[in-house]
Batch of 3 targets.
Target 1
Amino acid sequence: MSLPFILFFAFAVIAVAGALLLILAREPIHSALSLVLVMISLAALYLLLGAEFIAAVQIIVYAGAVMVLFVFVIMLLNAGMEERTNWSSIAKYAGVPLGVFLLLELAHWMARAGPGVGIANGAARAANTAVSTRALSALLFQKYLFPFEATSILILIAVLGALVLAKRDE
Amino acid sequence: MSVVPISYYLVLSVILFGMGAVAVVFKRNIITIFMAIELMLNAVNLAFVAFARAWNQLDGLVFVFFVIVVAAAEAAVGLAIVITIVQNRQTLNVERVNLLKL
């Protein structure tokens, strides 16, 4: 087994374990910390796929800014143990098998989406991954310039919306 | 050097997405549900990056960038909504937030 495979399986196992912890943890702060684990291992997988810029943005924006916001709100609201509510029997006996079925079906079709493509192109790409950030910035500021500018307006609206919503009424 | 096939990444992405969907349905804490949505967005991002690599197109990475930006905006607005809900109803349990329920 070569190094990329070992790294992939290591980080994949960490990501899935983090997602499991997110579901099983009763305290919201534990869920938040396990989500940070998932995001960091996904950043490592992005590096493995040769997307350095996206890996850096993942760490800075997701694992950094967004999750700090989550943890901040959890502490602000003093969110404690999750209340257990009694599930209806439909949720218990139909929901869980249907969830597993959805997962298996999605996995089946996604695995067939590009069989063997990675092996064909991956070896050629592995040599020149360092170029990708430069090419990505050229793409972002030329072909996708208008959507890029539109996202800045989106961020502005989000800031205004958060301010309006979180402000206490007089 | 052999390279991990793209389908492995896609299956991992599907597993994470499915777990996020299950968490959205089963969790009762509104903040945890929000985090599960972020998990699903992350899973989609992984699929985007994997496909971008498989087809040697960088456009997929640009879309991941946009998804991250939109997710950050969504988290800011969503958590403000959570704070407003807690101020008005003094609970984080989504089953207690049933004003629009018949």
Note: Confidence is low (pLDDT under 50) at residues 117-124 of chain A.
Target 2
Amino acid sequence: MRRRSVMTGLAAVGAGSVLAACGSAGRAADLPPGTREGGELVFATDREPTCLDPHNSGDMPQTYIARQYLDSLVSMRPDGSVVPWLAQSWEISEDGLVYDFTLKEGVRFHDGEALDADAVVANFDQIMDPATQSSTALLYLSPYFVSAESLSEHVVRVTLKRPYSPLLTVLAQAFFGIESPKAMGRGLAENCELPVGTGPFKVVEWRRNQEVVMVRNDDYTSAPADAKHQGPAYAERLTWRFLKDNTARYGALASGKVHAIFNLPPESVPTAQADDRIETQDFVHSCVPYALDLNTTHPALSDLRVRRALVHAADAPGIVTSAYAGVFPYEGNAISTGTPFYDEAYHQPYPYDEARANALLDEAGWDERDEEGYRTRDGQRLTLRLPYASDPGETPPADLTILQNFQAMERRVGVDVQLIPTDAASLTAIRRDPTAFDIRGGYWNSPTAGVMYIKFSQETFEIDNGQNVSYAYDEELDQTLLEAAATTDPEAQQELYSRAQQLLTAQAWHIPLYPIQTRLAIRSDLVADIWIEPSEGEPVLHDAHLLRDGDPR
Amino acid sequence: MTTLAPPAPVADPQVAPAPRRVRRRPAAGSLGLVAAGTVVGVVLLAALVPDLLAPQDPLEISLSESFAPPSAEHLFGTDQSGRDVFSRVIHGARQSLVIGLGATAIGLLGALVLGLLGGLGGRIADGVVTRVIEVLYAFPGILLALILIAVYGNSALTQMVAVGIATMPGYARMVRGQLLVVRGSAYVEAARALGHPPLRILVRTILPNAFRPLTVLVTLGIGQAIVWAAALGFLGMGVQPPTAEWGAMLNAGRNYIQQAWWMDFFPGITIVLFTLSLTVLGRHLQRATDAGARR
Amino acid sequence: MTATTSDTEPVGGPRPPGTSADGTPADPDSSADGGPAADALDPRRGRLLARRVLTTLGSSALLLWAVATIVFFLQHLVPGDPAQTILGGASANPPEETLQAVREQYGFDQPVLVQYGHFLAGLVVLDLGESYTMKQSVVSIVAEQIAPTLQLTAAALMVAWAIAIALTLATAGRPGRLGRIGSALEVVFAALPHFWLGVVLLVVFAVVLQWLPVVDDGPAGLVLPALTLGIPLGGFLAQVTRDEFDVALRQPFVLSALSRGARPGDVRWRQVLRHAALPGIALSGWGLGSLISGAVVVEVIFSRQGIGQVLVAAVTAQDLPLVIGVTFVVAAVYVVANILSDLASVLVDPRLRHAIGRAS
């Protein structure tokens, strides 16, 4: 028996912006006051994506930029609900296994192809195709996805093998942005350079190490229901610049060369706050926080006592606060405060306690010391290798400080942590080799609390691609998470997810540090209406408009 | 990345300007010499017995004291982890000096081999050696270092070898040139005419005269090698953090320059003072060498 | 105490054309502008010149080949899988089949010598391959990025010369404190490391005082980087030039010019400086090469585009084609720079024209 759950009502949200004006004829009427028409919006960020097609790989910089030129099926709201975007309505079957999406009509890709059900199906196919190497697909969809098919020109049916209540929020990410099948057909290499979507901007050129140039899509008609306005973007040109040096990036903002920056450097926060022209926006992602994952295949780390000792000795709150000058909050839970069903009871499961750490390590048998003061057992020193990206764009100075502080704190209890700067290619190899590292830093962004399953489940462990960095799993944890994914009752979900957090933190498979955030610094005297969407903290520039000189918002 | 050319204008054989003349007035004066000597002495001491001079453990962190400005307790302030910058600068001296001296030694050794081959071998050998030197010169020094580090990993040894190979051509040219000149000099001809065995001529006459100007070159070259090594550290290609090394400290300090200028200033000024002192010493040495007879 | 000529033995090996063994330049009056015209048309000199040009070109080509070969083989010693570099990225996780496909496509599983053969073949037609990380042809990357670096080094060279000339003219040969201050200043300048000077200048002038932009593509953004590179080189050139200036000042022609009523300033500027500049000019060829390597650090500090920062990124990412490409170009620039400085020496000192053709 099908249950009709029509969501079109929500299309009325954002009332008042139902104007579907495209082209400049009706534009003057709906420009926000003080706007300078057209112009070039310059946005600077620190990390450059490796590929502009977000279906490939699945790294954060990709989703941030892809939001500007790709639309997704639905858009997520801060409260966890979703509103129509390319899919203007959908029906979910009673058993939660079948989703029928009705697509908006009359939408075209930048290359002129029509957005129809076949196109969406082609997207699912490409994402799920191993050749595309989508880590997002692998972990978000593979465990659940069966097929996608066109029921009619504008209706797509997605069938799952087991219920997955977070599916809609997952589809809201730019990682699942819809691309033109014709463009995808050119092959991955070309699609990485110039992907084609339906979004408010189109990619014109990618100058490596410098910037990505985009121009306005004048025929844009497919803004999400929660956009601040419908219709084409205000800015004529969007330049996405890469400035990985913190001083340079902030300096460019302060001097007005760029209008907004991603990742306001922590050391510049006081200056930014003191500056009236600069507005800051912070958004805590739904994620597994950035943490030091402990590889349980190491003989010492397979022992729960050793893992707990490491967390007790680390003084994670202290090192995070000092390295980030208080700008980043500490998080000791397996998920962040921005994640639905976060339970603050598990915010700091293991407080800083050097004595306890020492006691646990002694108990675990590492009670002898060598000449340099490090613990040994049977003549073997307790050494843990921690490789990290040597590229300062990947490991910013504050993270490097955290690693060094962690090393110093563990040294106090006799644990030898070795920091090993590693280049990108070697890191890729290390990722899949459990014998090559003992601790690795990492995080995982996802709009759902099911992110715990993505990272720590047995299923992920068996895929054996290094995503389950601890090489460990717990059956009860997996069961709890699967149940939570199957139900749509919020109370039941909260109970189950809380239990999951309890189980996970009890295992101490990782040492959480801080949640991933999107932190924008914006010249509010130059540009207005940049906002952050909640599924992955993507900055939205469709609504942004440059201000006329001296005209305050 | 090198601040100095083939060390000191006078020393580069290719473009040596007019021979050094005794100045009408000594330029830096004995005050300068004393100051330079002191600086070099202190740095040497720091390299040999850092624990004697450094008040604190360079690796020990103190989160509550991070970014503390210079004070009585922390002469050069503290860094982002609360480590004492002064102690780190002291310990960094050993890193830098070891790499600088090691690199110079490697450079000299290589230069000796090349120079001897070129200066004393036949025309063909000389031709080959000149070409080799040219090739080495054509590598921007830092490139060779970068590649070697990529191959063998970040370590003091790689830095040393890389910098050593980069300094080699400068020394080699000088050695070869000197040998050529001295070999043809009247003094050597006289010795040959007197029937002295060639080996004795080589060891007693040619080598000492050829290498005398090298001492000056080397004094300046050590400074250059240290700067070079620090540049690599600055680019993140040196020793692994958190080991104290001047270049790496400058790299880290760069990020926090607005809130903690001392993190960048003190290691930097140390390098400058040390290099300066070596230059001053070198020039004094040069003047002393020139003033004496060279035949 | 009058100046004494020290021993006439040169300090180093073969001297460059233009400086005779005993350091005494010929009377410059006879070589005011252009030497005896008849000589220039001598066919024998023309042939010698041509031969010299050809030899230079030949040895330059050899040099470049040697550089490229060395870099090629050195990078092949690098542990690590270039296929990973090509497919890799921060969170990439390519499956083995894809890696193998890439290996075959690029020929990594072929023996080294075969790969070297392909590499040489490409080198001849100036096809330097494709960058592993940037997925663009190396030639296009270098072409794009070399202009800012050359701009920077040219600007830095100008700054260096301006400093050298200013310091020399103002303080060389002058009695008392002025001379010593000038000399001391030069030594200090030459001792300043780029990586420290750059940061200090950036913070003081761009961040704190905000007189100059932190990051800028245009001329304003060139000022601080050019100063960072130019000041140390300027100090060094100043030392060289000053020494030569001091020597030249004591030459008889200076005395005779002054006794004929020429003003000291004119004499210093027109006659003496020409002599003094010679070794500096000859050094400029080398200087330009070293400026390019200094540009690596400066481009990092000031977040400037340029082949210096491309090189650092390429080596860290083990991007072999890009490393070779940049090395090649830098070596080529060095060779060209040296040829140019040789030519410039000739222009400044007409006596050198007589020296053309004689082996140096």
Note: Chain A touches chain C at residues 47, 49-51, 57-59, 130-131, 133, 135, 189, 192-193, 207-210, 243-245, 247-248, 250-252, 254-255, 257, 389-391, 394, 423-429, 431-432, 465-467 (CB under 8 Å).
Target 3
Amino acid sequence: MCGLVALAGAVPPDLARAATEGAAARGPHSNGWATWRVKQGWRLSHAAGRLDGWPAPSSLYPVAIGHSRLATSTARPGDAPDPDEGQPLTLGGLTLAHNGTLQPSELATHHNSELYRGPVDSGRLLNYLALGRDPAALVGQLHAPQALIWARPHVGLYAMRLTGVRVPAHPLYAVDADTYTAVSSAPIPDGHLLDPDTPHLIWSF
Amino acid sequence: MIPRKQQSTQDDWIGALRSAYQQPDVARAQALVATAAEQLAEATQGYDVAYGWSGGKDSQGLRLVCEAAGIRECVLVISELEYPAFLGWATDHMPWGCTVEARPLDLAWLLRHPDMLFPRDAATASKWFRLIQHTGQRAYAKRTGIDMLVLGRRRADGNFVGPDGRYRDRAGFERLSPIADWTHEDLLCVLGANRCPLPPCYGWPRGFRVGTGAWPARQWTASPAHGWQEVATIDPTIVDHAAHIGIPGARQAAACAAS
């Protein structure tokens, strides 16, 4: 299970730490952050190991999405997974962090599209969302439970938990405040578990 | 009655498992879990505690007991030598409070330690356990500050559990096994009544005897070639990549699988 985190606005440091460290516990193989800058768009960084530290959102970085990966499939089974196979993934203006597995037949038409062609199954979700497909249409369509956080400037930061077949959706907790928000795979202070099977607009930017 | 793990066959387990899921004894399962959870809650009072979750049948039973006792935090220790299908299953089913510890044992390490491939004696098997499970558990304990780990070890599986189901290792770290006295049939009763999902390894060759764990740590193979043959049946991509790296025996196994 991978760990997801999103920070937006003036997140208090203690909350940012709790959200990040909780997500980090779930994914030991590699980590990544996507930060969005006004006029510059998304900036991605990937590294080996679990998430360690976080880019504090500010007027320069109003939104940051992090991912700590448990690699379930890699190009070379038996070798330490390549951090460049990790997440978040970005395509055009859209950035995605995903926790879950997709069966080969699921979203298969989005696999070899002209968009993202990388090695991870999460790329199919990225293609799906980047093409402007309705995330709510995924409800009841996927075998395994999922959790995803995605964002597109001028559209917003979203989070969604999807129930699998006889398996509850992966967790995502959120804190709502006027000047900030945080989402994490792990429980966070004053956080609430997001309702499953519905897209949640977490932050507008 | 299912014999001890080392003597049991796949057929022994499959028949009993089918029966436990098709004719669940809910009352007996509830009593087993409630009794174990009550004893666990009492034994862990005053401790910072988590449980070990491997995804295997025993840890799925243990998970129910721990959750009934209010223990949510757990640790899954893996290496880079796990079956990808198992990791996919674990991602889909792991408890929400699970921390994943990955030990840096990979193909490059295996290449330097060819004697560790498919252990055929207890000493080598226990070395695998020490290198992955014990080291990972200690790393988790150090990071989180827990002073007791709850485990799904059972006497019927031939596991060491210590007197009264608890023991302290040389470093002073305490391990407790609240389902130590469950028989195989007790465990299957609990799993069946709760419709617990089980990982794909139990459907693989000798799955119930081998259980979860790293693929090169498969025990009780008749020969290295037998080990490679089983791994190739389960996931040929593992053998292909091991052959590419130069792990002894993998190239021949890959050629056999391809012919």
Note: Chain B has eleven helices and six strands.
